[in-house]
Specification:
Length: 142
């Protein structure tokens, strides 16, 4: 949460929400680095959406960090494929700092963090693909 404190997050309808309020009751924040133009991302995103629908009431929030070419591409991707999760403002300083902080060198990448910003795993994608959602969340919380 440290990186997101005081920030505005974007919803799929283009409106903004205060990150502190949106994440107040969340234990885990999953940063999803992805883009509309990326074929592996387009394969993984529907799996992540199903995963999120199962665990969103267990203190888990996904925050999309877009590598899309435009804000319009990002919002269209969110409306078309994503779950009801939030996103970092397109092409913002925060996007760049999160890419650096978590050393993202390819997409899709799912970084699982505690609310305070402590990294649990940078390989959340494998957990989402290989485990039952409830088990993955339980493992991350322990």
């Amino acid at each position: 949460m440290d990186s997101l404190a005081g920030q505005q997050l974007v919803k799929a309808d283009g409106t903004s929400v205060n990150a502190d309020e949106a994440l107040a009751d969340k234990e885990l924040v999953l940063y999803y680095f992805s883009a509309h133009w990326c074929p592996p991302c387009r394969q993984f995103t529907p799996m992540l959406k199903d995963f999120y629908e199962e665990v969103s009431d267990e203190g888990v929030e996904i925050v999309f960090v877009s590598s899309d070419r435009s804000k319009e591409d990002m919002l269209s991707y969110m409306k078309e494929s994503h779950g009801d999760w939030l996103a970092i403002e397109h092409n913002s300083n925060l996007t760049n700092s999160l890419n650096e902080k978590y050393e993202v060198d390819g997409i899709p990448t799912l970084v699982v963090c505690k609310k305070d910003g402590t990294v649990i795993t940078k390989d959340g994608r494998d957990h989402v693909m290989s485990k039952q959602p409830a088990q993955a969340v339980k493992d991350w919380k322990n």
